[in-house]
Amino acid sequence: MKIRIYNPLFPYPPDEGNMLTVFDQACSLAKNHEVELVSWMDSEEEVLGRRERGSPIEVPSSLRLRPLVGPDGQGGGESAWRRIYRSFADDTASTESHFYPKWPLRLIRNDAPVDLEIFHHMFAFPWLVKKSRNSSRRRVCMVHDISSRLYRHRALGARNPLARWYHNHGADILERHEKGLGDLVDDLWFVSPMEMEWFRQRYKIPCGRITSPTFDVKHAQRIRDTFVHSRHAEGPALFGVLGTLHHPPNLWSAQFVIEKVAPLLAREKFTGIIQIVGKDARDKLMEAASRYPFIRVSGFVPDLAQFWNGLSGMLVPHVGGTGVRMKLLEALAYGVPVLANTEAVSRLHQDLQASPLLSIRDEPSEWCRFLLEERPLARRYELSHLGMSKALQGKEVYSFVGEAYLNQK
C-alpha cells in the first residue's frame, strides 16, 4: 500500500512531542507500506540543519522524507494580517491558514495517486477543499485538538478588545471548518477519546476512531535503560515541566505550578527542584518563578536525554486547551512517573488511564503534599520494570491500516 502523510513541519530529528508522534506514525506505517511524509513550513537552511543534527531513531528505507521549499528558499505561509484579510474573502481560509498555505499545492498537484492520504491537523481544511479526491482511494484527517475551543478560551482571557475580536473571529471560522470536515474526508483519527466524543455530539459526524500518539519503542527503551544503569548521585528530587511556553496550554500549566503550588511548597520549606524547560518564556513568568529558589526556568534544551534521565517525575496540570498533553504521553513512554490532574488524564486512551506511573491530584494543596512526600527517584526505580504500553506503540495502534480499511464504507 502507498501512503502519503502531510504535516506542516519537517519532523526530523524527532525531538519534540508532535515531531516524535508524527515521525513514529510514518515509521510505524513504513514497516508494512511505502510511505512519503510531505512538509513545507521550514526553510531550506532549517531542513539541512535538522538533517545534519541526526537522530538515534532510524529512518526506514520505505519512508521518504519530502520537505517542500518555496521559490525563495523559504517555507511557511502568510502573515497574520494577510490571513485575517483572506478569511473574509475566502471561505476556506482561516487565521491559521499559514499551516496549509496555497503554494505547496502547486508543487504536489502532479503527484501520482496513493492508496491513503493522512492530513495532520484540522487546519488542513483549505487543502481538503481544493485537492482532488482522485489523489487517493481514502483520505483521513488526524485531529490533534479542537482548535476552535482553544480560540474561544483565548478570547475569554484577552484584555485587549482587538485581541478578543481576533480570537473570536478565528473561532467562528474554525467552527465552520470543523462542521464541514466530515464531508471532505473518509475518516477522522482522534488522539483523544474526549475530543472525539465532543466532536461527534457537536457536529453529528459518525466517523472517527482513536489513534493515540505513538513513540519509537527502541528509543523509549534506551531512555529507560540509561536511567536504570546510571549512577545517580544523592540529591534533591527533580520534577519537570516541559513544553514551548508561547503555546497557551503549556504556559497555563507553568503558571499553575508557579502561582498555585509554589507558594504552598515555599511555606513547607520544600527541598526539591522544579525545572521548567521550554523556549519563549516571557519576562512576567521568569519574574514570578524567580521568587522561589527551588524553581529553575531552563529555556530551550537541545538534548533532553539528560533531563529525562534525572527526573523523579513530570508535572502535567491540564489547565486549559484541548487535545492530549504530549509530554504526559512521552513521560509514560519513557517510564517517568507523572503527577497530573483529572482533566489531563481523562483525555488519554483508556488503556493508559490506569497506568501505575500516573498519580492524579486536582487541588494545589494535594499537589504540594504529594511533592513534599516524594522521595528522589524512588518511585521511578520501583516501576522501572514496566514496559511501554501497547497503546503507545505504532505497531499496535496502526494495525488496522490495510486493504480492508481502504474498502470500508
Task: Describe this entry's structure for a reader.
With 409 residues, the chain is α/β, with parallel strands linked by helices. The protein has 2 domains: 2-214 and 393-406, Rossmann fold (3-Layer(aba) Sandwich); 217-389, Rossmann fold, CATH 3.40.50. It has 19 helices and 13 strands. The strands form 2 sheets. Strands 3-2-1-4-5-6-7 form a 7-stranded parallel sheet. A 6-stranded parallel sheet has the order 10-9-8-11-12-13, with helices on both faces. Helix 6 (147-157) packs antiparallel against helix 7 and helix 10 packs across helix 16. The radius of gyration is 21 Å and the shape is globular.
Topology, element by element:
Blueprint: E1 2-6, H1 17-30, E2 34-39, H2 44-53, E3 63-67, H3 80-89, H4 103-108, E4 114-120, H5 125-130, E5 136-143, H6 147-157, H7 161-180, E6 187-190, H8 193-203, E7 209-210, H9 217-229, E8 238-242, H10 248-267, E9 273-277, H11 283-289, E10 295-299, H12 305-310, E11 313-316, H13 326-334, E12 338-340, H14 342-345, H15 350-353, E13 358-360, H16 364-373, H17 378-382, H18 394-397, H19 403-406
Parallel strand pairs: 1-2, 1-4, 2-3, 4-5, 5-6, 6-7, 8-9, 8-11, 9-10, 11-12, 12-13
Helix pairs in contact: 6-7, 10-16
